[in-house]
Fold this protein.
Amino acid sequence: MKKLRQSVIFDILICVIIVAGTLFFIKPIIVSGSSMEGTLSDKDYLLISRQAYTLFSKPKAGDIIVFPQPDGDEKGKRLYIKRIIATEGQRIRIKNNKVIVDGKILNEDYIGRKETHGNINYTIPKGQVFVMGDNRENSSDSRMFGTINVKNITGKVIVRLYPFGKFGRIR
């Protein structure tokens, strides 16, 4: 009986360690809104990597990230999901409805409408990223609230779990 009890306690301990580790490294979230439409849809169920950016890995253009809302009435209460367009040291310019990074027009095959409104022309500061939603017409992003501090990134989107027909890695 004592061996059975020890075995059950051991199994429970292993489960607790697995769950705690998973919650430390991975976090589930549900998309709320249409700012990433084309890539992600309202009510998509995602997993994000909370440890994606460490000493050995930095955010890069094209990554889809999650971060606390940086402005407005809900500041810090809601999570935003956006795509990184430019990283520290890069020069971003939005001119004539085109996004230009380091002098090159971005090839953004992930957006439906190829027009991007805004009048931006600056270099991204150290430790910051410039983000935009894929649904540019319906996105509150760095064009409105400025760059995001890398330290404020909650995680990187790694996989869509639901709907099952769209299950897979997010790029």
